[in-house]
Amino acid sequence: MPGLTTSLLTAMHALMAQQGAMNVSTNNIANANTPGYSRQIPILEEAQTCRQGSLIYGNGVQLARFQSVRDELLALRIQEETSQQSGADAQTTATQQIQPLFASTGQDIGSQISAFFSSISQLSTDPANLSLRTAMISAGQGLATSFHTTVSRLGQIQSGLDGSVLQSVGKINQLAQQIANLNSDASSLQAAGQDGGRVTDQQTELIRQLSELTGVSVIHTEHGITVTTGNGTALVVGNQAFALQTSVGSNGFQNVLSQGQDITATLTSGSLGGTLTARDQIVPGILRQLDTLASDFASSFNAVHRQGTDLAGNAGGDFFTPPSSLEGAAAQFSIAVSDPAAIAASSDGSAGSNGNLTQLLSLASSPLSSGQTPIDSYSEVVFQVGTVACNAQAESDASSLSLQQLTDQRSALSGVSVNEESVNLIRYQQAFEAAARVITTIDQLNQVALNMGANGGGF
After folding, report:
1. What angle is formed at CA 222 by the lines to CA 217 and CA 226, rounded to 5 degrees?
2. Beta strands of 319-438 (E only): which ranges?
3. pLDDT, tens digit, for every residue of 332-366?
4. pLDDT tens digits, one per residue of 256-291
5. Do 261 and 355 belong together in one domain?
6. Residues with Cβ < 8 Å from 192, sequence gap 6 or more?
7. Residues 87 and 228 in one domain
8. Residue 441: domain span
9. Is residue 49 one of the residues assigned to a domain?
10. Buried b / exposed e across 227-241, counting CB within 10 Å, b at 16+?
């Protein structure tokens, strides 16, 4: 038959279980503001019952384990949205640097094209005026300068993005190594049948940070977690991290390598993916459009200029230096005429004729080989820059909203409610005090029984 000793052990087990439960609530409250922390709950179970003859009696309660509250699917969605938002933010940051280059400041390409045609219009009123001819050459040089400045600034932005690639790869390697180091701890805890919530929370936070840099995929195995990039390139397998490398490619920019294989084109999300998209697609796309504009404008203008004659009655030559190739035409854009008298303003060989200037002026409203007028062609570049910027910002805003909703869901599930934990703490404390009173009562009964024995059982 169970006696006072059995009751004492049952109460003692209750004290230990409630003490452990209070420790869990206290730890939850302490980590209420810890990034990535998932609240823990104590799993209390009825202790194994005992049988004595035909009687079955309980042995109280036991604290089976601590269990972290988390949703792996929700964590996966947060990782995906984090990567999308970081990629969009990287593109937004890049386009915010690009947009001022195409603002109407008077020194931009569009303003300089208008100023150049304005100088031709002024010269047409007095074709033999050397001052007006000099002004036309100066306006042409201003247009060339605006092309050069824009291309140079785009190159600087591209170089800055290239530097960010190096930094991102370094951070990815650092985070991957930390995750691999934690895999050993997680495996040991799982083998011992423990929750390992602390290690898992640390890994989850590291993976979230990794997701900001690049899209990742996480697979849970008996050896911990395996982390790969979105295209399956291994970053972490067990306790081993596979570092990414960088190498300068034929374009002069850093390519990202994994075990010798170029994976640059496969990195499309996260800040690294967004940076690569801006560096390898957005900026080169703008440069190609500027090259096309510069090449078409120089070729069309030269063709008409060659049809006229200069002040000496000689056939006109090239006004702009013909680009050697389409690629780099904007950077090479320059004036071939330095002598004001060499401007082919006349259409009939006389010094006072402005017939060819009229033809040159008509180029302002005539389509280039691209099918658009010079101003419209430039406006198309501006429109494309604005569209890319708006799309990146819209994607960032949408991802931010979605990520906030997912984060709120995670907070509701895994986050710590100080009020709820305070109530739990009081509940466990009351259960602890009740068990303590049982022990006190049993102790008093034992004292009475001992005193009775010391007195010989008399009254």
Report:
1. 20
2. none
3. 999 999 999 999 999 998 888 999 999 999 999 99
4. 999 889 999 999 999 999 999 999 999 999 999 999
5. yes
6. none
7. yes
8. 4-69+417-454
9. yes
10. bbbbeebebbbebeb
